[in-house]
Amino acid sequence: MRDARLLVQALRDPDSLHDPDWSALVATARAEQLIGSLAARLAGKAVPPRVEAILESARRDSAYARTQALWEAEMCRRALAPLGMPAILLKGTAFHAADLDAAEGRSVGDLDILVPRDRIEEAEAALIAAGWERMKAAEGYDDQYYRRWMHELPPLIHHTRDRMIDVHHTILPLTARPRPDATALIADSVVLESGLRMLSPADMIVHAAAHLLADGDLAGGLRNLWDIDRLLREFAARDDDFWRKLAERSRLHQLRGPVALALRLARRLYGTPVDRVVAGRTRLGDRLFEARLLARNGWGQERHKALRFAFYIRSHWLRMPPLMLARHLWVKARA
Amino acid sequence: MRHRLAFQVGPVAFRIGSAWRAPIDALGALYAGYPEPEDGICDFTVRLEPEQPWRRWLRPSVAIRGDYMLPDAMPMALAHGLLAAEMGMNLQMALGQKRYLLLHAASVEKGGRSLILTGESGAGKSTLAALLGERGWRLMGDEFALLDLASGALHPFPRAVSLKNGAIAVVEREVIPTRFGPRLDGTPKGAIRHMRPAADALQRMGEGAPPALILFPRFGVAEEVRPVGQAEIFMRLTQASTNYVALGAAGFDALTRLVSETPAAAIDYPDTDAAVALVEDLWRQAA
Predict the structure, then answer these.
(1) Distance between CA atoms of residues A335 and A68, nearest Å
(2) pLDDT digits (tens, 9 = 90+) for B6-45
(3) Residue A299 to chain B, least CA–CA distance (Å)
(4) Is A301–B1 a contact, with Cβ atoms under 8 angstroms apart?
(5) Do A60 and B247 lie within an 8 Å CB cutoff?
């Protein structure tokens, strides 16, 4: 197996698998952090006993990941509660907290939250008082870099639980060209049972698309795109007006391009039903993104070094203007 | 991958891929007689690859990769490729095994019941288990004991025994040379030599056994047997497990059952012959 297409097929249409190379499928899914999602998709299907045991283990892992993620969110809620500021869960933790379909088998690494920019230092102080610690030396280059240019604080780690939290004030670095409307993200957020909040459905898609296509180098992209597939299917089924709202929000946040591309890639890889107008017309470059997303073989190895490197360069290009990039690389090279 | 090998150890199937031939040849010789994965499907993938593309030829260095990886793992010399493969398999078990409660322990079987030997690295459990495996016991495993979450039985994991430093000569005296891998000097853990377990350990690798006794051996001190309270046993076993927390309630239940139903003792011993005698003695009392 030369690319990750078998994994995509298994997620998209589990019934279409006929005696696949299971070892390859499992290795690819683990490498892409999608083994939990695969286990959820294959639940109740007839698979060989050893595969069932592997998937059962993955389900056990997912249950533990979910407990841990929700506990971190709760710890954070308690730390921030006295401040009375809105705290919005992002990404995987939000899926779990809101019990979205995207949470099924979803692994969660760090806790990501969004707070108002003018109160972010208050939030940081409260978290540090509650046992989180700085990982980057205060006032060092990295620390200053985050505070000045990034959309989040330098990561904090909890001193006993060893879990990281990223506190955001918006969803893209300040140096990126699009300027999402952070005030609108917060104003439209939805309160959860616990008192924590999550983004509105349309904003959640905008954020997922921004994270996948306007920020990083597409590492772990198949997982992020799978999130988008699950979210789109659920939101579109729940709200007849969803696609109009998505179009409106992606315009508001200056992210029409990435959102449209995310929709086209989800349709292309996972067969997601998407609105043709919001998705826009297929472009030649879509195939490069597809090839990058699939650049992993059945041994879990990364493939297409040059293509991967090109996307890595692109991620920096999107993130900062050329002169700033030059300065950043200069400092990093001397460090 | 260019060079590859797949085999089964107890209930677990591995496939190992390598950019070089030598580690696979060494692994194939050491694991001669181990069955191929029953259904051709592997639980875990291990990859031995150059740390950077040019390191395949130029000062070859083996990065240990696979389904589960340590981000800061040091690459190894190609001459130690066999050890790299072993470490890769251990890593998959330690980080990825969630089907059984995994105890960092050696285990042996006699009369359909099993003995668990657990303790810190260097306590001598590998050596002791290897010797018992040559003296009337069936070796179930020298590194990991797999506790069944439903039945409470112990499953064998008879990978090649990893003998270190002084233990190598002790076991060489009792085992035919063809069962040994090459002696690896200058590894991060000193000298290492792997040994294939005896034929019965391989033939019966699918056969579990309920635990009958837990011992905490300690090598190099005057002979002594001490009782250990259940709370302490429980705590020591949680520390000896890599997946106890991740298994949640299932792990707690399995461990509680093991501790409440199985007698245990701590044993100190000056040399391996004393240890074997102690074990036989305690086993008779427990039976």
Answers:
(1) 35
(2) 999 999 999 999 999 999 999 999 999 999 998 999 999 9
(3) 7
(4) yes
(5) yes
Alpha-helical (H) ranges within B1-80 are 22-30
Chain B partners of A57 at a C-beta cutoff of 8 Å?
A: 96-99
Residue B97: closest C-alpha in chain A: A57
Question: Could you give the CA distance from residue B246 to residue B284 in angstroms, rounded to a whole number?
Answer: 36
3-state secondary structure of B287: coil
**What is this model's ipTM?**
0.94
- Helix residue ranges per DSSP H, chain A: 5-12, 22-31, 35-41, 49-80, 91-97, 120-129, 141-149, 182-187, 201-213, 221-238, 242-252, 256-270, 276-279, 286-293, 305-319, 322-334
Cβ within 8 Å of residue B285, ≥6 positions away: none
- Whether A233 and A226 have beta carbons less than 8 Å apart is answered as no
The predicted-structure confidence for B106-161, as pLDDT tens digits, reads as follows 999 999 999 999 987 777 888 999 999 999 999 999 999 999 999 999 999 999 99
How distant is the Cα of B247 from the closest Cα of chain A, in angstroms? 7
| CA diameter of chain A | 57
Q: Chain B residue closest to A2 (CA)?
A: B1
Q: Which of A61, A67, A300 sits opposite B98 (nearest CB)?
A: A61
Which of A7, A28, A54 to mutate to probe the B interface, most B CBs <10 Å?
A54
Which among A49, A57, A64 has CB closest to B248?
A64
Are A67 and B47 a contacting pair at CB < 8 A?
A: no
pLDDT tens sequence across B177-195: 999 999 999 998 899 999 9
Hey, how many other C-beta atoms are within 10 angstroms of the C-beta on A140? Answer: 12
Cβ–Cβ contact B15 with A under 8 A: yes
The one-character DSSP state at A296 is B
pLDDT tier at B60, thresholds 50, 70, 90: confident
